[in-house]
Amino acid sequence: MKAVTLYLAVILSAIFVPKYSWATINQVEAEIGESLISSRDIYINLAVEQIVFLNKKTIKLPKLNSKLFKEVVASYIVEQLVFKEADLTIDKATLEGPRRANKVLKQLKRDKHWKNLRPSLVELQVVINTKHTSKEVIKKRIEFAKVPISDQEVLVYFEQNKKDFAGLGINKFKENIRSLLSQRDIDKKLADWISFLRTKYSPENIASSRE
């Protein structure tokens, strides 16, 4: 889903970071409210996504200031904005944080890049719970955005795009068209909501303007 994968899908084919220095991993990449987001924050967040939520065995981190890195920063910002909208109805997985954090530390204890990031157990728990909560908020927004697609809407789409159906009748494609229209509607609503969040919180993506 395009709107969801804007921040949920992590690009795993990135170039490995050749070497960290403490100065570069503390480079400021974004500002959200009064919070400054460093490249270290971005890398830890991405590593947690890969190990905890995508069940990868190893991590792949994009090179600092690369196009892929800037995309990851943009996704991070969206995730943080979504988290700000969480309410008490969201399960924040407080009990899952420690177990998952230990999994990350154990799995990456020999990774040379991870060692330079030096995250604490508490820090990892915060990252994990933030990511979990953001994902739950998105799921709820998707459920909220779902509306039935009428037969008339399906027919209108079919008539407007007949050339794409190789002269076959509508019955063969009716449910596929219905699913397509429903997905489009959800994607637009999520995109509009994220745009609203950007206006509401006015985050600054510093990485995007850096050469």
Explain the overall architecture.
This protein has one domain (2-209): Orthogonal Bundle (Triger factor/SurA peptide-binding fold). The protein has nine helices and three strands. The chain has a three-stranded antiparallel sheet. The chain is mainly alpha-helical. It has helices at 2-8, 22-25, 39-53, 67-84, 96-107, 112-117, 121-145, 151-160, 174-201, and strands at residues 28-32, 35-38, 204-205. Helix 7 (121-145) packs across helix 9 (174-201). The two termini are 30 Å apart. 28% of the residues are buried. Mean pLDDT is 84; it is low at 1-20. It is elongated.
Structural class by sheet pairing and helices: mainly alpha
Gross CATH architecture: Orthogonal Bundle
Oligomer: single chain
How would you characterize the largest beta sheet? 3 strands, antiparallel
Poorly predicted runs are: 1-20
**Largest sheet, order of strands side by side?**
2-1-3
Could you write a compact summary of the structure shown?
With 211 residues, the chain is mostly helical. Helices cover 59% and strands 5% of the residues.
Please outline the helices and strands.
Elements: H1 2-8, H2 22-25, E1 28-32, E2 35-38, H3 39-53, H4 67-84, H5 96-107, H6 112-117, H7 121-145, H8 151-160, H9 174-201, E3 204-205
Antiparallel strand pairs: 1-2, 1-3
Task: Describe this protein with a few key phrases.
9 helices; Triger factor/SurA peptide-binding fold; 211 residues; 59% helix; three-stranded antiparallel sheet; mainly alpha
